[in-house]
Specification:
This protein has 2 domains: about 60 residues; about 80 residues, Glutaredoxin (3-Layer(aba) Sandwich), CATH 3.40.30. Helix content is about 50%, strand content about 10%. Strands 2-1-3-4 form a 4-stranded mixed β-sheet, with helices on one face. Helix 2 runs antiparallel to helix 3. The protein is elongated, with a radius of gyration of 18 Å.
Length: about 160
């Protein structure tokens, strides 16, 4: 169940627009932020707030790359596997992350810190190979650069 403060904030935001359904992604993100991912309960809450069916919300949730329907780590790493990143070494970046984190794409580290996912394109083609971590882009990746990024994130946690 959503905290009353968050629910009221969402209702106030929804009440300000002519077509509340246009806020479905914003509402899903807010609920995901609260739970850590968009839970089944979060789908129901989103649907209720926006006068939509749970099926409509579910269809949208599974369409968007950054809406997570399963638990994810504190840091979600999206490794770009677009054509340009493939040509510029995506596989070595992916393989290095798999080895370094000791997880496969779609998995999270046992400590809940990192989740590794592939993503079609992040629009960072001029700096490929690239990845996003919690929607922040990193490009021109090498093993050393990845090590530095991961160490920084470990220190923050």
């Amino acid at each position: 169940m959503l905290p009353e403060e968050l629910k009221q904030s969402l209702i106030e935001h929804i009440d300000q627009v002519e077509h509340p359904r246009e806020l479905v992604v914003d509402v899903m993100f807010a609920i995901q932020e609260h739970y850590g991912y968009l839970t089944d309960e979060g789908v129901q809450e989103t649907a209720g707030l926006l006068d939509m069916s749970a099926l409509e919300v579910e269809q949208l949730a599974t369409f968007y790359t950054f809406i997570y329907r399963e638990p994810v780590g504190k840091y979600v790493i999206h490794v770009c596997d677009s054509v340009v990143c493939w040509m510029d070494g995506y596989e070595s970046v992916r393989d290095y992350l798999i080895q370094k984190l000791d997880i496969q794409p779609g998995e999270s580290t046992p400590d809940g810190l990192f989740t590794l996912l592939a993503v079609c394109c992040i629009g960072y083609c001029d700096r490929s190979p690239a990845m996003l971590i919690n929607r922040k882009a990193y490009g021109n990746l090498t093993a050393d650069k990845i090590d530095g990024i991961l160490e920084k994130l470990h220190r923050r946690s």
